[in-house]
């Protein structure tokens, strides 16, 4: 939303890479309604021009999306888009996704100054994603340590073996977000 407002872009999307670095985990948009988004169908999977941005990892500015040979077109019900500015979300040497802007106000093309502003916004978004993942990793470790402590306490207190095994299965199922755990 900040990128759309500051750079006067009609549409902005933030493609977040999954931790595997190969697929999109999220595709967050502004400029289209929920109904328009639903009519477009499935979110992008990182093919075509968006896929090229993910693999090349460098900024890309186009006057017309349709004239780029990497473009695979738009799905049905997708709003028309012409001008394009895409910038990778990178922190240090790690890629976190891309920030995409299209349709600058007044039909103008995105310029070097726009690209510099978007790089700064992309860096901030990359740092936010990295911090969120680090926080989640720490929380996951805390939950595993707590479960391990629970099991250790049960073992040392002389709890029945069957009950300890039930506890191990229950905590493992919970922590792994699994449907089933069996020992």
Relative helix content: 40-55%
N-to-C CA distance: 49 Å
Write down the secondary-structure element order. Answer: HEEHHEEEHH
Main pleated sheet: 5 strands, antiparallel
Q: How large a portion of the residues is in β-strands, by DSSP E?
A: 15-25%
SS element count, helices: 5
The largest beta-sheet arranges its strands as: 2-1-5-4-3
Structure classification: alpha+beta
State Rg.
22 Å
Mean pLDDT: 85
What overall geometry do the principal axes of the alpha carbons give? elongated
Ranges where pLDDT stays below 50 over 5 or more residues in a row are none
Structure, described:
With 183 residues, the protein is α+β, with helices and mostly antiparallel strands. It contains 5 helices and 5 strands. The protein has a 5-stranded antiparallel beta sheet, with helices on both faces. Helix 4 packs antiparallel against helix 5. The longest helix has 45 residues. The protein is elongated, with a radius of gyration of 22 Å. The N and C termini lie far apart (49 Å). The mean pLDDT is 85.
Summarize the structure.
By secondary structure, this protein is an alpha+beta fold. 45% of the residues lie in helices and 21% in strands. The radius of gyration is 22 Å and the shape is elongated.
Secondary structure layout plus pairing:
Layout: H1 2-7, E1 9-17, E2 24-30, H2 34-40, H3 48-56, E3 60-62, E4 84-91, E5 94-104, H4 112-156, H5 161-175
Antiparallel strand pairs: 1-2, 1-5, 3-4, 4-5
Helix pairs in contact: 4-5
């Amino acid at each position: 939303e900040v990128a759309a407002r500051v750079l006067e872009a009609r549409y902005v999307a933030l493609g977040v890479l999954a931790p595997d670095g190969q697929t999109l985990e999220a595709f967050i948009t502004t400029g289209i309604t929920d109904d328009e988004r639903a009519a477009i169908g499935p979110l992008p999977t990182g093919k075509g021009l968006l896929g090229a941005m993910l693999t090349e990892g460098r900024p890309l500015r186009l006057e017309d999306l349709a004239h780029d040979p990497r473009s695979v077109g738009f799905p049905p019900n997708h709003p028309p888009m012409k001008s394009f500015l895409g910038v990778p979300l990178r922190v240090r040497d790690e890629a976190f996704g891309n920030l995409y802007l299209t349709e600058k106000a007044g039909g103008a093309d995105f310029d070097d100054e726009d690209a510099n502003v978007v790089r700064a916004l992309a860096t901030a978004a990359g740092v936010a994603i990295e911090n969120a993942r680090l926080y989640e990793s720490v929380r996951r470790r805390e939950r595993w340590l707590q479960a391990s402590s629970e099991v250790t306490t049960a073992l040392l207190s002389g709890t029945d073996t069957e009950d300890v095994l039930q506890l191990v299965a229950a905590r493992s199922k919970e922590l792994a977000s699994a449907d089933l755990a069996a020992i």
